[in-house]
């Protein structure tokens, strides 16, 4: 419960501030050019430091890293809520990202080393998977409610009670298994190369969204990221105590999970953005009503993760949950390509969101478990960090890539049709229709991305049904404390 609460806090913080951003921008006098840094400062620190945070959890102990991460995140949230100018706000968001990068992998690796019984592990990861998938939508609901009825500052202050309860519970209740720490010297070159490489990658996609893909700095960021990450891989292959042991990502099943999960997140984050704008700008929903409109998706995710995924995880191979799960989500996404200005929420959006939630919840649950199953305890922190990294990078790519596709389609539609609009009301109608045209064009790409994620899950992941244990592969030994339903390679 305490681990789930902490994970919810981290995940919803990626979206809760978005709805509060217009109010915060006005109060603090943040310019339109700088407002993106409220989101970007968090994303850069969080995405860039995840691998380092995972390694620190392995070195210090997951419980200690978890409690420290919670305390730091609460302090940074208090600073953000009390911000009096843009510099204070940007600094607070960056600090939230730093402590989030310590907290997120510590939470997942605690689950990995604590829950070793098959059924208990299924329940724990069912709850975790539901939160990982639906936390962003919860953030939209909570952000809308707090902004409309209280004040934007409460989107920060609300983290403090979450963090205090989770930290107190973790300190007194959680018992981390003895041993399993990785006390090897810290791989400093690996830390520097991975952090700079991931920061450059996330910033490149963030900048592409606002300045375009051909912008010289955008291109420079992508080139720098590629060079740094290649250098990181080469370094990790040579050093004695790597930050990210390559055995963690080259193992077939984990590699398949990281790749398919990252692709699914690309589709999901783009959708959150489009549906929020569609509901508020096109349909005229209030922030609170918009948030509640996402409830069916959250209900679907919880059902898919805790009922379907948890019940079937010990009976069928993970790929038979992940592949069909992504395809069901793709079907929900496909329904949204029929979206028009006057589309009915009950007839179109409601069933589409339910299918999306059910599919994603069913797929996320075994993905989260498989990503850390069979990994050596000393590597559980960095294996968990890789899950979060694939989500964070996927979110940055999804927002930038799909937003660019939507903007291009909107511009093209308006240019072709605005000439035939004589009155101002007709011109406004063309503008709205252009936006919807942009959203549906991008959603078609999201459908394709989810289908690719399903194909990867079905073909690359070959883990057997939990309980059908086989000897581990030669590059990896599985200690007794995590050797539970071991995956078949």
Nutshell version of this structure?
The chain is mostly helical.
What does this structure look like?
By secondary structure, this protein is mainly α. It has helices at residues 2-28, 36-60, 62-81, 86-114, 118-149, 154-157, 159-173, 188-211, 216-238, 246-250, 252-282, 287-293, 295-312, 319-336, 345-372, 380-417, 424-460. The two termini are 32 Å apart. The model is unreliable at 468-489 (pLDDT under 50).
Secondary structure layout plus pairing:
Blueprint: H1 2-28, H2 36-60, H3 62-81, H4 86-114, H5 118-149, H6 154-157, H7 159-173, H8 188-211, H9 216-238, H10 246-250, H11 252-282, H12 287-293, H13 295-312, H14 319-336, H15 345-372, H16 380-417, H17 424-460
Name some characteristics of this structure.
EmrB-like, mainly alpha, MFS transporter, disordered C terminus, antibiotic resistance, 489 residues, transmembrane
Q: How would you describe the shape?
A: globular
DSSP strand count: 0
Largest sheet: none
Question: What's the overall average pLDDT, rounded?
Answer: 81
Low-confidence stretches: 468-489
Beta-sheet strand percentage?
A: under 5%
Question: In DSSP terms, counting alpha (H) and pi (I) runs of 4 or more, how many helices?
Answer: 17
Give the H and E element order: HHHHHHHHHHHHHHHHH
User: N-to-C terminal Cα separation, in Å?
Assistant: 32 Å
Radius of gyration: 22 Å
Structural class: mainly alpha
In helices, the fraction of residues equals over 70%
Main location: membrane
Protein name: MFS transporter
Membrane topology: Multi-pass membrane protein
Organism: Streptomyces prasinosporus
């Amino acid at each position: 419960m305490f681990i789930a609460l902490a994970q919810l806090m981290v995940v919803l913080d990626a979206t809760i501030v978005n709805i509060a951003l217009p109010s915060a921008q006005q109060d603090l006098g943040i310019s339109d050019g700088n407002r993106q840094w409220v989101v970007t400062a968090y994303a850069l620190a969080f995405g860039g430091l995840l691998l380092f945070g995972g390694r620190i959890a392995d070195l210090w102990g997951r419980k200690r890293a978890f409690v420290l991460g919670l305390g730091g995140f609460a302090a940074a949230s208090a600073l953000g809520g009390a911000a009096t100018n843009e510099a204070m706000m940007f600094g607070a968001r960056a600090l939230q990202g730093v402590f989030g990068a310590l907290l997120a992998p510590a939470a997942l690796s605690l689950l990995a080393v604590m829950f070793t019984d098959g059924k208990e592990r299924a329940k724990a990861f069912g709850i975790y998977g539901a939160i990982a998938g639906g936390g962003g939508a919860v953030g939209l609901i909570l952000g809308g409610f707090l902004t409309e009825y209280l004040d934007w500052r409460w989107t920060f202050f609300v983290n403090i009670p979450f963090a205090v309860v989770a930290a107190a519970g973790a300190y007194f209740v959680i018992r981390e298994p003895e041993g399993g720490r990785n006390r090897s010297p810290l791989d400093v070159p690996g830390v520097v190369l991975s952090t700079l490489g991931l920061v450059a990658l996330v910033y490149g996609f963030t900048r592409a969204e606002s300045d375009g893909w051909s912008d010289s700095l955008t291109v420079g960021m992508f080139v720098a990221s590629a060079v740094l990450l290649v250098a990181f891989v080469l370094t990790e292959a040579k050093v004695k105590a790597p930050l990210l042991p390559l055995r963690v990502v080259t193992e077939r099943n984990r590699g398949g999970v990281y790749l398919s999960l990252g692709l699914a997140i690309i589709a999901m984050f783009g959708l959150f953005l489009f549906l929020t704008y569609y509901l508020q700008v096109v349909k005229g929903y209030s922030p609170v009503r918009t948030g509640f409109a996402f409830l069916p998706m959250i209900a679907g995710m919880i059902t898919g993760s805790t009922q379907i995924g948890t019940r079937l995880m010990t009976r069928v191979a993970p790929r038979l949950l992940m592949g069909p799960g992504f395809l069901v989500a793709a079907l929900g996404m496909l329904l949204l390509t029929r979206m028009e200005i006057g589309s009915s929420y009950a007839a179109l959006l409601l069933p589409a969101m339910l299918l999306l939630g059910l599919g994603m919840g069913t797929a996320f649950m075994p993905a989260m478990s498989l990503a850390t199953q069979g990994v050596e305890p000393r590597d559980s922190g960095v294996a968990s960090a890789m899950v979060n990294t694939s989500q964070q990078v996927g979110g940055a790519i999804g927002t930038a890539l799909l937003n660019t596709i939507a903007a291009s389609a909107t511009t093209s539609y308006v240019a072709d049709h605005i000439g035939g609009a004589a009155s101002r009301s007709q011109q406004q109608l063309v503008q709205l229709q252009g936006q919807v045209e942009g959203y549906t064009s991008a959603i078609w790409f999201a459908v394709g991305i989810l289908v690719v994620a399903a194909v990867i899950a079905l073909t690359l992941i070959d883990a057997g049904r939990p309980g059908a244990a086989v000897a581990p592969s030669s590059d990896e030994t599985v200690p007794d404390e995590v050797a539970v339903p071991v995956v078949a390679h």
